[in-house]
Amino acid sequence: MGPKNTICIWYDREAEAAARFYASVFPDSAVQAVHHAPLDNPGSRQGEVLVVRFTVCGIACIGLNGGPIFPQSEAFSFQIATDTQEETDRYWNAIVGNGGQESECGWCKDRWGVNWQITPRTLTKALAAGGAEARYAFAAMMTMRKIDVAAIDAVRRQGH
Question: What residue ranges do the domains of the chain occupy?
């Protein structure tokens, strides 16, 4: 029996490719199962990949090939906590470099339209601290695409 709660992500037709990509990039990630449509349906034909069970950083997900009717938006994103600039760069570059695109404030979008926040823990800690530290970190973040860990650390020191 699987987990009680699973995130379901709607894809047009490439849920399996997306899941395999995520499994190749993120730790504690894997593709568990690929299920094919037992009958023709509005999103796929009998025998085509319908549902993919996978995990991203230990979080259970289902990729549903439902067709183009519900495109991705920033209303849903994965937020991946990072500890170093190297780790931040690795995930960011994997997503953007595989047909994705950069956005603002640590957000990027993969080639399937799924949104990701690649978020260094130093930024999360600065925002949680409140006061001047949070204001300085937030202002710095607002000028960035990929988060610069050293720059956030520097403004955190100013806010103390």
Answer: 1-70, 72-160
